[in-house]
Design goal:
Elements: H1 2-14, E1 22-24, E2 27-31, H2 32-38, E3 42-46, E4 51-55, E5 60-64, E6 69-72, E7 75-78, E8 84-86, E9 89-93, H3 94-105, E10 118-123, E11 133-134, E12 137-138, H4 139-156, E13 160-163, H5 175-182, E14 187-194, E15 207-211, H6 237-255, E16 262-265, H7 268-271, E17 277-284, H8 288-294, H9 297-318
Parallel strand pairs: 10-13, 10-14, 14-17, 15-16
Antiparallel strand pairs: 1-2, 2-9, 3-4, 4-5, 5-6, 6-7, 8-9, 11-12, 15-17
Helix pairs in contact: 3-6, 4-9, 6-9
The structure holds zinc ion (ZN).
The site of zinc ion (ZN) has 5 residues, from loops.
Length: 340
């Protein structure tokens, strides 16, 4: 009797069937099943228990134990911390629940009356800073060409667009987000093309970066794990995650490109932007096929179209169409000479 009472008390304390959260390497973790249940998602285990799929009407996320690689609605997303397991119970970091999954499951809404109208495009490098170089091809040339194409397509889609540079000139990194901040841009999109550092030619595919949340390490090649402090951009890290996800999804689907995933970095241009901000690495100049595509205006047009679609998907998620206005009551018959 007493034992049953104790058991009931414990169940009430922890929530029936709920396992307490764990701390792994100093980071808070929760059971994937608890997070899924709390958010109305079903959990399916596969791959001899190593693979966990959570699904509902709008989300299908696939995780693997001991891995940071996740697929969210088919898009590769690098988690902040690996999925763990404690006595066969898969655990996910609380920071990933809050900063990676939540923005996709519950898109943050634009404040009422605040419309998404102005986009700042940032063509990477310029002037003395060539960016990556592959043979005679300089990254700075193609980031500007893509920005100009994207400018035209965004204007056609009804956006106001500003560019951090319009010619082959050198612009200091801090001046780029500073311009976006001064002009009151609603989004900041930095454009780059990648290259392998060791000259390897097999790596290909776009990557989309957004700011690393406070308390996590970045997933860019260099990493910057020591920098745990908050930055201006962390005020918008939910929005930036959603924008990065929608853009990467559109790039991969529309270009049929290899999916290198949504990643995190504290790049200077992302850190200081006072608005949702992403950095797109549109592909690898060092890949023999993708490189040729990047240097081709037709492919860049398709890439620009994919980015516009990503931005529009983000916009409709954060700024759903206004509800239909209440029916206007027709004025009743008025007496002659009466002026309401
Ligand atoms: Zn670059």
């Amino acid at each position: 009797m007493c034992r049953i009472f104790l058991w009931l008390a414990l169940c009430l304390l922890l929530g029936a069937g709920r396992l307490p959260a764990a701390v792994i390497n100093g980071h808070g973790y929760v059971p994937v099943a608890d997070w899924a249940t709390a958010n109305g998602l079903k959990v399916v285990r596969g791959g001899q228990g190593k693979q966990i799929t959570v699904t509902n009407r709008v989300l299908r996320a696939v995780f693997e134990v001991n891995s940071q690689e996740a697929k969210i609605n088919g898009v590769a997303v690098r988690l902040l911390f690996p999925v763990a397991a404690d006595r066969n119970v898969p655990l996910i970091s609380q920071l990933d629940c809050d900063k990676t999954l939540r923005p996709i499951l519950y898109p943050p809404r634009q404040p009422a009356g605040q419309h998404l109208t102005t986009i700042c495009l940032d063509p990477g490098h310029g002037g003395k800073d060539t960016g990556n170089r592959v043979g005679a091809y300089n990254e700075k040339t193609y980031t500007l060409a893509l920005a100009q194409e994207l400018h035209d397509q965004l204007v056609k889609a009804g956006f106001k667009v500003i560019l951090t540079r319009t010619t082959d000139e050198y612009v200091d990194l801090p001046l780029r987000p500073a311009l976006a901040n001064r002009k009151g841009a609603d989004l900041f999109v930095s454009l780059h093309f990648n290259a392998t550092e060791d000259g390897k030619t097999e790596v290909q595919g776009p990557e989309t970066y957004c700011i690393t949340p406070v308390g996590a390490s970045s997933s860019n090649a260099q990493g910057d794990g020591a920098n745990y402090g908050p930055t201006t951009a962390n005020h918008f890290d939910q929005q930036s995650m959603l924008l990065a996800y929608q853009t990467q999804k559109s790039l991969v689907h529309n270009l049929g490109a290899t999916d290198r995933g949504v990643r995190r970095a504290r790049f200077a241009v992302l850190r200081d932007a006072a608005m949702p901000a992403i950095l797109i690495e549109g592909g690898y100049m060092t890949h023999p096929v993708e490189g040729k595509r990047i240097f081709d205006a037709g492919y860049r047009r398709l890439m620009a179209r994919a980015i516009v679609q990503g931005i529009l998907a983000y916009k409709s998620a954060v700024q759903p169409p206004a509800p239909a206005p209440a029916p206007v009551r027709m004025p009743g018959p008025t007496k002659p000479g009466h002026h309401p």
